[in-house]
Design a protein that fits this description.
Length: about 150
């Protein structure tokens, strides 16, 4: 079992290095106030005026200069390369729900990887928010009246 780095009684907002507006981030944080950054998402969080509770990932997107902007105890390097930084965040947190921004990237393979993670991650509900979509794993049975 993997050690949990962040525990929250409220929702957690995961901020990735992909495109997210300050407005989107602020709206997510209003609902899920505990902020965790996925590697380079630490820079995005700082640009939005937020100090993440933790920066989790393989740290290949943060420069040594970026590292100095965060308290050392908040930097959590997970070197294994069998998962994305988003997935590393998900398996390292304990919260009732997660809102994730900037985790799909601008390439289709990044978006598919983020969606695939939802099928394997079952500890808490996760909503991936983009500028135009809300992505989530549907329950096995779902009826939508159109």
């Amino acid at each position: 079992m993997r050690e949990k780095i962040v525990h929250s009684a409220t929702g957690i907002t995961i901020i990735g290095a992909g495109r997210s507006s300050v407005r989107q981030i602020a709206r997510a944080v209003a609902l899920a106030p505990c902020v965790v950054a996925a590697d380079g998402g630490g820079r995005t969080a700082l640009a939005a005026g937020l100090m993440p509770e933790a920066i989790i990932g393989d740290m290949d997107s943060l420069s040594r200069g970026d590292w100095g902007k965060f308290p050392p105890e908040r930097l959590h390097k997970i070197a294994e390369q069998d998962s994305t930084d988003f997935e590393k965040c998900l398996y390292s947190i304990d919260a009732p729900f997660v809102l994730a921004l900037g985790v799909t990237g601008s390439r289709l393979d990044h978006s598919l990887a983020a969606m695939n993670i939802l099928t394997r991650q079952t500890e808490q509900p996760v909503l991936i928010l983009t500028a135009h979509e809300v992505i989530f794993l549907c329950p096995p049975k779902l009826c939508l009246n159109l």
